[in-house]
Amino acid sequence: MPFCPITLEPIAEGKSFSEAGLRSLHPRLTKLASLELAHDEQLRQARLRADKMSVQGVQPKLSAVLRLKHSRFEIVDTGGRFILKPNPLPFTDVPANESLTMTMAATAGIDVPPHGLVPTVDGGWIYVVRRFDREGRSDRIPVEDFAQLSGATRETKYDSSLEQVAKVVEEFCTFPALEKPKLARRLLFCFLTGNEDMHLKNFSVIVRDKVVSLSPAYDLLNTTLVLEKAEEETALPLDGKKKKLTRKLWLDYFCSERLGLSTRQLDKLLTDLTRALPKWHDLIDRSHLPEAKKEVYHDLLKERSERLEISP
C-alpha cells in the first residue's frame, strides 16, 4: 500500500498524495507536480542562490513559492513562502529522514510547520517546509535563534550547553514556565530519535502579539542515521556530558532540577512520549526510507526508549 509523502497516511493505488497532505500546503491545492529540477541542478541552484537566502545553514536550501494555478513549486530569489532542501552530498535519504522525523514530532505534541516530500523529475525526493516567519504577502514575523540571543556566531554555535539553552528560554521568553515543558519535550524527542546535531541555531524564539515564545520546531532529523557512526548523543552537553546520557540525567537533573518541571508535568510528558512510541514505529514503516535504514531507526528508537524507561 502506498503512503502519502506529506502525511504518511495510506493512499489509493494511482494516487500521489492524500487530500489532507495537499491541503496542508494550501487549502485549495488538489494536485502537485514534480519539481522540474534534477538533483545536480538543485544543488547548483542552491549554491548560486546561497547569498540570497535569509535562512542560512550547512544544508543546501532553495526558496520557493507554490504556484497554485500550475500546482507546482517555483524557485525564487525573494518572496518565498517555502523552503526546499535537496539531499546534501555525500549523504543519502536525508529528505525522507527529515520529513519522517518532523512528522513523528507532530504526533508527540511538538509544534511543527507543514512539511513533506515532493517528487523530482529524476525520480528522487526533495524536502519542503513552509516558512513560519512569513505571514500574508509580505509581513515578516520576528524570529531570532538562540545563537543570536546568546551572542554566539555560526562558528561558535556548538560552544554552549543545554543548561544555557534553558537559560535563554528563561531570559527571553515572556512566560518561561509555559515554554520550559515544551523545551523538555523537544530535547527528549531529539534524544529518542537520534538527533545529535541540535546546536544553538536550531532553537529559536518567535514574537506574536508581543509575546515571545519558542518557535515551531525545525531541522529535526535522525542525524545518527545520517552519520552512521555518531559518537555523541547531543551536540550541546548536558551536565558536561555528550554521550551515555541516562534517565536520571535527563529527568532528575535536567527536567526536574534545572527546568523545575513538576511531577505532574513530567508524568504527562513521559505518558505522551510512551503513547507516541507505537505511532513512531508505524510511521517509520510507512516512511520513504530504504528498508535497511528503517531497521536502524527502529533499533535506535527502541534502545533510547528503553534507556529512558518509557517503553510501552
Layout of secondary structure:
Layout: H1 19-25, H2 39-48, E1 62-67, E2 72-75, E3 82-85, H3 94-107, E4 115-119, E5 125-130, E6 134-135, E7 139-140, E8 143-145, H4 146-149, H5 162-172, H6 176-192, E9 204-208, E10 211-214, H7 223-227, H8 247-258, H9 263-286, H10 291-307
Antiparallel strand pairs: 1-2, 1-3, 3-5, 4-5, 6-7, 8-9, 9-10
Helix pairs in contact: 3-9, 5-6, 6-9, 9-10
Describe the fold and architecture.
With 312 residues, this protein is an alpha+beta fold. Helix content is 39%, strand content 13%. It has 10 helices and 10 strands. It has helices spanning 19-25, 39-48, 94-107, 146-149, 162-172, 176-192, 223-227, 247-258, 263-286, 291-307; strands at residues 62-67, 72-75, 82-85, 115-119, 125-130, 134-135, 139-140, 143-145, 204-208, 211-214. Strands 2-1-3-5-4 form a 5-stranded antiparallel beta sheet, with helices on both faces. Strands 8-9-10 form a 3-stranded antiparallel beta sheet. Helix 3 (94-107) crosses helix 9. The longest helix has 24 residues, at 263-286. The relative contact order is 0.12. The mean pLDDT is 95.
Summarize the model shown.
With 312 residues, the chain is an alpha+beta fold. It is built from 10 helices and 10 strands.
**Rg over alpha carbons:** 19 Å
Low-confidence stretches: none
Can you summarize the main beta sheet? 5 strands, antiparallel
Strand content: 5-15%
Strand order of the largest sheet: 2-1-3-5-4
